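Hi all, posting the design record for the shared folder.

TITLE: backbone redesign
STEP: 1 of 1
STRUCTURE INPUT:
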């Protein structure tokens, strides 16, 4: 299984009266494969989240295509689209804001399964397994997000993504809001999950050390353009446009 953005560009309209166009991604091609981690690196505003949202099907490219297992995302309907939704999950930077503060953890997790029409009788087993994978006990199910630490909430966000047995995870700076020791725990947990489940990751960060620890290959973006794409061993931080552009 693979997920590819092919020659993707994204243009936003800006301003209420004089509609200016702003190109935030230009002709970007990246591919995420099962069992591998592609690190997406770049300064703030370089287009990382925009690309991640397009790959997750949460936004549309202005031109170019997203391909999931040789099928174009735009043309997917019914069963095919449901399969994509299950297989490609996104985990965001701030776990607390991605969980509903008014709902218990248990309810938030069950809702994901309801949405995909997983029979009620299977909920308990699936949730229990996902909690085990992220190292939390069932005790958290009756708590609200504000009653958990940042690290625990990020584990819940990860458990929620894992409920659907995804093949690709898009991780948008998932440790950015955590302190250093908790960050290390989550990074190690992600590596362990990948080792046992063979999930493909797109890992977004602007920390070179995290990129090196997590990635098999790296794509570096500057002003929406790819300035490096290749194995992590060949990557040097701050590749400038065109200077080190290589195909993996
Ligand atoms: N909905 C939108 N409308 C207009 N411009 C947008 C929109 N979303 C993002 N942008 C702009 O697109 C550019 C890229 O944003 P994006 O969030 O993808 O960058 P990023 O690399 O993820 O940044 P960060 O590391 O700070 O999260 C930024 O200049 C941002 O202001």
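Okay, here is what came back for every position:
SEQUENCE:
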């Amino acid at each position: 299984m693979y997920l590819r953005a092919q020659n993707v560009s994204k243009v936003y309209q800006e301003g209420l009266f004089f509609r200016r166009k702003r190109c935030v991604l230009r002709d970007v091609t990246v591919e995420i494969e099962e069992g591998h981690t592609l690190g997406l690196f770049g300064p703030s505003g370089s287009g990382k989240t925009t690309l991640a949202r397009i790959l997750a099907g949460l936004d549309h490219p202005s031109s170019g295509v997203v391909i999931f297992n040789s099928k174009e995302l735009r043309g997917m309907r019914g069963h095919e689209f449901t399969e994509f939704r299950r297989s490609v999950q996104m985990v965001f930077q701030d776990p607390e804001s991605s969980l509903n503060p008014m709902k218990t953890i248990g309810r938030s997790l069950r809702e994901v399964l309801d949405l995909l029409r997983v029979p009620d009788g299977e909920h308990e087993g699936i949730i229990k397994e996902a909690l085990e994978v992220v190292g939390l006990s069932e005790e958290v199910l009756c708590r609200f997000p504000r009653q958990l630490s940042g690290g625990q909430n990020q584990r819940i966000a990860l458990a929620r993504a894992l409920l659907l047995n995804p093949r690709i995870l898009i991780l948008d700076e998932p440790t950015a809001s955590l302190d250093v020791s908790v960050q290390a725990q989550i990074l190690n947990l992600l590596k362990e999950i990948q080792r046992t489940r063979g999930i493909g990751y797109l890992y977004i960060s602007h920390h070179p050390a995290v990129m090196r620890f997590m990635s098999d290959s790296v794509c570096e973006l500057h002003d929406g353009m790819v300035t490096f794409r290749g194995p992590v061993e060949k990557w040097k931080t701050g590749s400038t446009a065109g200077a080190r552009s290589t195909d993996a």
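COMMENT: Residues 180-197 form the longest helix (18 residues).
Let me know if anyone wants the other runs.
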